[in-house]
Amino acid sequence: MEAEREGAELTAPPPPAASAAAVSVVFDDDDLLREILLRLGFATTLVRVALVSRRWLRHASHPAFLRRFRRLHPPALLGFYLRELGAWAPRFVPVSRAPELATAIRRAGAAEGHFFISDCRNGRLLVTDFDPTACRHAVLSPLRPARGKAALPPAPKWSLIWFFLPEKAAGCDDDGAVAVLMLPLGTKAKLQVDLLTSGSATWVVRRTAVIDLPEPLPPIAYTLPPVEGKVYSLTKCGHILRLDMAAAESCLLQLPDRVSTDNFTLSCGEEGSVLFLIHAEGYLLSIWQLPMTSSDADDWAVVYDKVPVREACSRREDVMVLAVDYNLEFVFLWLRSSAVLMHMHLESRSEKVYDELKVRDGRFLDINPFMMVWPPVFPALRDDDNLDG
Known about the structure:
With 389 residues, the chain is of the alpha+beta class. The chain has helices spanning 2-11, 16-27, 30-38, 43-49, 54-60, 63-72, 102-109, 310-315, and strands at 77-83, 91-94, 115-121, 124-129, 137-140, 149-151, 160-164, 177-185, 188-196, 204-212, 220-223, 230-235, 240-244, 249-253, 264-267, 274-281, 284-291, 301-308, 319-324, 330-335, 340-345, 351-354, 366-371. It is built from 8 helices and 23 strands. The two termini are 48 Å apart. Residues 30-66 form the F-box domain.
């Protein structure tokens, strides 16, 4: 009995005062606190715990800490907006099931209106309203519903014009936008980038240049958002046209030798220093990258080489590339024969098939992956806010 009593004493929990003291020692250590915050997993949780005290908020919102947090926990993909040919509005399809993201997913699914999504970046949508009398553009922030819809003023009328949400370095805030305008002039092109800041009624010319073209401007299939003063357009002739505003230069980039079909899409990724090409052949998926400073086709490097799509293998059918998110984590695919939409997480190779969506034809799908906002929006404290620390 004496031995049992001694063993019980050894394994008994410490008194409450001792436990509180131990916890206080841990949380009063700034280095330990940062390591604990670093393991939260989601930016939404980080924002909530930052309300504990001013000290916690100071650590959680520090730029150096946020850089570490982002490397470990990239912005989560909440889902994607899907619009089929003839549909008046897109529908939101959740991807994440994490309970920490439930509120964000609910808000993303509540975006309403008859519109076409022109660009989707960092928790915002640049939309074009379906209006028989006018083509109106606006910015929606589904994760911050109090912002409502910010209508954009008309842009200058040029031959070609594309609207985008701004990159981080553009000096533009949440409701801003970028317009890329092009006027073909034979073997030259006049190019202009206009910037719109929140609440402004006027576009401001940010860059303008007359650029020599390697040949008369070929028909353009689509254009990527401008990155570091460079504009990339995929032509219908199967080349990539790069327009460098700063250097007033252009070039036609050749595709990798193995890319012999138009079953691919392009992306500049989140960092914007590399051009990515995501290509499918049969049931195999490959991704190449090309430095933005290069114009040599030999500089294409393979990132993922001939990754098998298991669902396509099991069904013995080909896949078509539809879209990719900005972090280059998820690629959305269409199974041609069975008419099924799916996505693959590239790092883990995990796949999800959306049989329940009943999508009719992948050739006319418009998919916009929708991600969490980064950096996270922390509360702005007032002097009378009662936070200790």
